[in-house]
Amino acid sequence: xxxxVKSWVFILLMTTxxxxxxxxxxxxxxxxxxxxxxxxxxxxxxxxxVSVKDGAVTLSGTVASEEDRSRLAEVAKxxxxxxxxxxANELTVEAxxxxxxxxxxDLTAKVADATKDYPSVKAEVSSGIITVTGSIEQTRVxxxxxxxxxxxxxxVDMSGLTVK
Length: 164
Hints:
- With 164 residues, the protein is of the alpha/beta class.
- Helices cover 43% and strands 27% of the residues.
- The chain has five helices and six strands; from the N terminus they run ααββαβαββαβ.
- The protein has a three-stranded mixed sheet. Strands 4-5-6 form a three-stranded mixed sheet.
- α2 crosses α3.
- The model has no long low-confidence stretch (mean pLDDT 88).
């Protein structure tokens, strides 16, 4: 009876060893193959660089928005979720270029609207530059400056403005 128990224990141990060995011997995906999979799903973003080392993915380069940045990290992870160990998202969001408004007629109309709540302030537009004169309370200087800057002129010159 003792020998039968030993035989069953031995068979059970060997079966467990074979099962564990078979599971741990699943084919490992190479870093190059993993990189190729991720590059396929990120191909519509030519400024994204993919690198892989031991299953750890690094995304670098530039994208147009924070949404793209987040989505690409998720796409990289999902390209092969069993073999991607981690994703380091080093992507940067490229700032959209600011287009300067040099159309004096357009700026003049927009400046008139932006300064309508500032009766003691005058603003003139010439060659895309807004020149502000008059007087204003200290607490209202920043909101006025921000409103005029938002019009994207070449420059906002507030040196002729008196602050009370």
